[in-house]
Amino acid sequence: MASCLQIADDEKGHDLDLFCVPRHYESDLDKVIIPHGLIMDRTERLARDIIQDMGGHHIVALCVLKGGYKFFADLLDYIKVLNHNSDKSVPLTVDFIRVKSYCNDKSTNSVKVIGGDELSNLSGKNVLIVEDIVETGRTMQTLLSLLSECNPKMVKVVSLLVKRTPRSSGYRPDYIGFEVPDAFLVGYALDYNEYFRDLSHICILNDQAKEKYKV
User: Fold this and answer.
1) How many CB atoms lie within 10 A of CB 195?
2) pTM of the model
3) Which pairs from 38-45 meet CB under 8 Å and 24+ separation?
4) Residue 27 carries which DSSP code?
């Protein structure tokens, strides 16, 4: 099982006034649960683990948009640094796919994949899927099923977050940054109806904000 940093269910988090939080979001958040610096440190270690496991192979890094873009960019920056400063480097190319499974704060049973026609280009390739958060796991299982039809040589999944939830299918990525409580999290490109992507830290969204930004 992939190792990760666990954030306990009773984690109290950190007061917002200890961090730089955009003023337009201050009334929408309960706590900072994962500060930006901790995200970056954990991402650096994930990059090292990935290079150790997949180094020596050409990797196609597949970013799951939109929520995964910030983690994707930072992870690839750390991999690039390792490539420049290590005896074991890996050729790296990138591709993008968009997967949608949310309406407001609820994960739906319907998974919509945008850009799936381009997955055929991954035939025979070593693929690293980069995701922001795995909740039920059904979205990723759907994507992996689609990928398998394209016959990639190898597929690994890295997710910044995995949520502990009774709705989980039991799926676990190959690499995990943090295991988090069953709360609605925003920030570091995690959104609620497209808001909060511009927040550096990962925070717990309060109930008033769910109504405020509801579509």
Assistant:
1) 16
2) 0.90
3) 38/5, 39/71, 39/74, 39/160, 39/177, 39/188, 39/201, 39/202, 40/74, 42/5, 42/177, 42/178, 43/71, 43/74, 43/75, 43/78, 43/160, 43/177, 44/78
4) G
Residue whose pair of structure tokens reads 């306990």 in the numeric block: 8
Q: Read off the tokens for 41.
A: 């440190």
Confidence of residue 18 (pLDDT cuts 50, 70, 90): very high
Place of tokens 């995995």: 162
Q: Would you state the structure tokens that stand for residue 167, as one six-digit string?
A: 């709705």
Q: Among 102-106, 109-113, 187-191, which stretch is predicted with the lowest mean pLDDT?
A: 102-106
Instruction: For 70-109, give one letter per residue: b (16+ CB within 10 A) or e.
Output: bbbebbbebbeebbeeeeeebebeeebbebebeeeeebee
How much is the pLDDT for 86?
77
Residue 136 neighbours by CB distance under 10 Å: 20
Residues 120, 143, 108: CA angle, nearest 5 degrees: 140
Please report where in the chains the tokens 């109504």 appear, as a residue: 211
CATH match for 5-213 among 1.10.760.10, 3.40.50.2020, 1.10.357.10, 3.40.50.300: 3.40.50.2020
Cβ pair 138, 110 in contact under 8 A: no
What's the token pair of residue 147?
A: 């990928």
Distance from C-alpha of 20 to C-alpha of 199, rounded to nearest angstrom? 9
